[in-house]
Structure formats: structure tokens, C-alpha cells
């Protein structure tokens, strides 16, 4: 029934401009709160951050699970936008990859693990479509850098996304929220390791996003 509810809700009626702004504020506030404190923060706090009442949240989302579903879609969609714009706008392919990696960190892509592990239907058509778009965008970025001889060839999209998730995953507790400067330093070190010529041979094999999705 939950999946049927979400499928029905995924075909949204056309919203008035003010209602659309409220919906976007709620999703943005939820993303911010989840990054800081996890997915089980009270909806009161999300409403407060969004500047709306609790009733407004329930006018847009039937429950917490549906709200988190849309936060996950928002994160993946925004990161996919970053991949596509970086490839289109940067003349140097490795610079495009570097720009994407830092932009994905700013979008708090590491929160995706928290979102997708919170009982969401990972096979929901909206999630699959957005995930595929993200995978295609990152694959295009990496493929272009490999074709130019600037990215080592023994890594796959899955390798990059695992590293991004690990290096940008929110740390528990409000005292650890402001760690972005360290994230970008460590991401830059990671990127240096991706540049050719490779300085070592990696153990194991490169990973795709499909490999990650089918791991137990």
C-alpha cells in the first residue's frame, strides 16, 4: 500500500506558485535537518526551518516516509544537474570531474545513504529514473576524462560514488556539522589519486553503480 500511495503521489497536480514554494522550502529544510541530525528528527523542526506549519507539511506529504522519498529525489536530481552542467561548461574534462566532485559534496550527497536506508522503496520508478540519470551523468564525466587520458582507467562510477559518500557522510551530533572545509581538502587529495599517470595498482576491480545496488 505504501508503494501504491507513493506512485499516486508521484503524479502531482499543478501547484500554485505559493504552494510550490512551500513544497520546495519543506524539502530543502528536511534535507538540511537530515544532514545535521538524521532522518528521525521531529517534523516540527522541519516545519520551523521551512517557515510553515505542520499542517502544510501534511498537505504536501502523507507521512515522513514520503517526505524522505522526495528529499532523496531532490538530492540525486541536484547532483545529476551538477554532473551535466560541469561536463557542458568546463573545457578541461578533469576540471569538469573535479568541479562535480566538490559540487556533489556541497549538495551533501553523503546523506543519501541515510535516506535510502530508511525503509524507502528503492525500486520506486521515480527513484530508479533519477538514479539512472545521475549514473549516466557521472559515467559521461568519467568517460570524457578517461578518453582524454586524464583519469585512470581502473576505476568506475561506483568507486567514485563510494568515495564521495564516505567523505561527505554527515557526522553524528550537532558539534560536527561544520566540517565542510575538511571535506574539500580530503576530496582534493582523493582527486589527486585519480589523475594519470596512476602511481599504484588498485586491488580488486572497478565498480559500477549496479554493482553497489546488488551488494548484500
List the helices and strands and how they pair.
Elements: H1 2-10, H2 17-37, H3 43-50, H4 54-60, H5 64-89, H6 93-106, H7 111-116, H8 125-147, H9 157-168, H10 180-194, H11 209-213
What's this entry about, in short?
With 216 residues, the chain is mainly alpha-helical. Helices cover 68% and strands 0% of the residues. The protein has eleven helices and no strands.
Distance between the termini: 25 Å
Q: In percent terms, what proportion of residues is strand?
A: under 5%
Fourth-tier CATH superfamily name of the largest domain? Tetracycline Repressor, domain 2
Note poorly predicted spans.
1-5, 7-11
Number of separate domains: 2
Q: What number is the mean pLDDT?
A: 82
The CATH level-2 architecture of the largest domain is identified as Orthogonal Bundle
Total beta strands: 0
Structure, explained:
With 216 residues, the chain is mainly alpha-helical. The protein has 2 domains: 9-61, Arc Repressor Mutant, subunit A (Orthogonal Bundle); 64-213, Tetracycline Repressor, domain 2, CATH 1.10.357. The protein is built from 11 helices and no strands. It has helices at residues 2-10, 17-37, 43-50, 54-60, 64-89, 93-106, 111-116, 125-147, 157-168, 180-194, 209-213. α5 runs parallel beside α8 and α9 (157-168) runs antiparallel to α10. The longest helix has 26 residues, at 64-89. The protein starts with a helix and ends with a helix. Mean pLDDT is 82; it is low at 1-5 and 7-11.
Amino acid at each position: 500500500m505504501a508503494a501504491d500511495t507513493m506512485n499516486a503521489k508521484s503524479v502531482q497536480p499543478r501547484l500554485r506558485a505559493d504552494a510550490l514554494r512551500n513544497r520546495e522550502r519543506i524539502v530543502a529544510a528536511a534535507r538540511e535537518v537530515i544532514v545535521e541530525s538524521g532522518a528521525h528528527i521531529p517534523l516540527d523542526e522541519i516545519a520551523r526551518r521551512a517557515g510553515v506549519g505542520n499542517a502544510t507539511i501534511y498537505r504536501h506529504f502523507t507521512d515522513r516516509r514520503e517526505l524522505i522519498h522526495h528529499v532523496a529525489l531532490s538530492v540525486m536530481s541536484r547532483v545529476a544537474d551538477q554532473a551535466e552542467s560541469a561536463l557542458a561548461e568546463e573545457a578541461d574534462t578533469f576540471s569538469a570531474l573535479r568541479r562535480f566532485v566538490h559540487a556533489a559534496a556541497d549538495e551533501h550527497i553523503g546523506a543519501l545513504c541515510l535516506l535510502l536506508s530508511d525503509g524507502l522503496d528503492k525500486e520506486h520508478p521515480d527513484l530508479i529514473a533519477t538514479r539512472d540519470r545521475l549514473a549516466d551523468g557521472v559515467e559521461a564525466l568519467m568517460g570524457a576524462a578517461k578518453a582524454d587520458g586524464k583519469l585512470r582507467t581502473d576505476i568506475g562510477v561506483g568507486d567514485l560514488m563510494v568515495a564521495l559518500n564516505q567523505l561527505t557522510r554527515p557526522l553524528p551530533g550537532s558539534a560536527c556539522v561544520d566540517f565542510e572545509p575538511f571535506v574539500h581538502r580530503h576530496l582534493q587529495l582523493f582527486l589527486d589519486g585519480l589523475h594519470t599517470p596512476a602511481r599504484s595498482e588498485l586491488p580488486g576491480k572497478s565498480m559500477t553503480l549496479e554493482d553497489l545496488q546488488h551488494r548484500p
